[in-house]
Amino acid sequence: MLAHTTAHPLHAPRPRRSRPVLPVRRSAARAPFLLLALLLAALALRPAPAAARDPSVLDGLALAQRGASANLCALTFDDGPGQTTEALLNILRDKGVRGTFFVVGARVHLYPETLKRLVAEGNEVGNHTFSHISMRQRAPVEQLSEIARTNEELAKLGIVPRYLRPPYGRYDNATIDAAAAQSMTIALWSVDSRDWRKHDLAAILPRKSYGVLGVRGVFLFHDNHRETVEALPSLIDRLTEAGCTFVTMSEYVETSGPLCLH
Ligand SMILES: [Zn+2]
Questions:
Q1: Ligand 1 center to residue 89 CA distance, Å?
Q2: How do residues 34-78 score in pLDDT, each as one tens digit?
Q3: Within 13 Å and on the Cβ side, how many CA atoms surround 77?
Q4: Which residues have their alpha-adjacent CB atom under 5 A from ion ligand 1?
Q5: CA–CA separation, 127 vs 104, rounded Å?
Q6: Per-residue buried b or exposed e for 208-226, using 16+ beta carbons within 10 Å of the residue's own CB
């Protein structure tokens, strides 16, 4: 009986080897791949990744590290103008808060009166490209066109935007050059409300962002979600209680200085 069990191929004892040198070599050989996998995972988790860190770009880190002495909060709304813009403007007006709207150029001619009202009430307009494309690795001439056409549409309404927010936060060196050619600065965000996931917006309240704790920074929302409109009044109340001083994107950049984190 014993002979039968040991004869089974699955239970057969493996031939003994002299020291298991091989497994050690194997793990050593795997180490670079593990490191590479970890590095790729870390890169994938980075918010608003950039092709290159350029001091002229106001990316999440640069924005988070500004204005530590004041709790400046810039509420920004991407992807409009649209059907929710007027409702957002009503909330901002009622709360005495001004925001910044990064608009899609192709939509500008659809809502001229809304945009005029937006500016008249002290809000700011930014450029979010003409057709909401991912700018990274696009031909330089196409990138410049996306920015310039949006500025041309806005110019018809007397609006001259100062900041470009490339969709998805994706840009490369050609985007930086194209923005500079249009006398603009790339400005991303430091706090993502993730309203597009339809999460509870209250979850964005006090939390750590880029290593800086506190309720401050440039908040990213979207101007095409009913959930954002519904949550915004109470969210503004809570941010006010937390000490936020609400500013536009330009005011945020002008009022704050680079923060020295030592
Ligand atoms: Zn967008």
A1: 18
A2: 555 554 444 444 444 444 567 789 998 888 877 656 789 999 999
A3: 25
A4: 78-79, 167
A5: 7
A6: ebbebeebbbbbbbbbbbe
Q: Is residue 31 part of a domain?
A: no
All residues at 6 or more sequence positions from 247 whose CB lies less than 8 Å from its CB, including other chains: 72, 73, 74, 98, 255
| Percent over 70 (pLDDT), the chain | 69
Helix (H, G, I), strand (E, B) or coil at 74: strand
Q: How many domains does the chain have?
A: 1
From the list 245, 261, 260, 257, the residue with the least C-alpha distance to 67 is 257
Known catalytic residues are: 78, 222
DSSP lists the bridge partners of residue 73 as: 217, 246
Write the DSSP symbol of residue 7: H
Instruction: Identify whether 23 is part of a domain.
Output: no
Residue 224 C-alpha to ligand 1 middle, in angstroms? 10
Q: Is residue 152 part of a domain?
A: yes
Task: Quote the ligand 1 centre to 24 CA distance (angstroms).
Answer: 49
Nearest to 103 by CA among 150, 169, 168: 150
How long a stretch of residues is the chain? 262
In the prediction, which pLDDT does 193 show?
81
Q: How far is the CA of 35 from the centre of ligand 1 (A)?
A: 33
Q: List beta partners, residue 72.
A: 245
Ligand 1 centre distance from Cα of residue 215 (Å): 23
Is the confidence at residue 213, as pLDDT, over 70? no
Q: Which residue segment(s) compose the domain that 238 sits in?
A: 60-255
- Output the pLDDT for position 3: 38
CATH number of 193's domain: 3.20.20.370
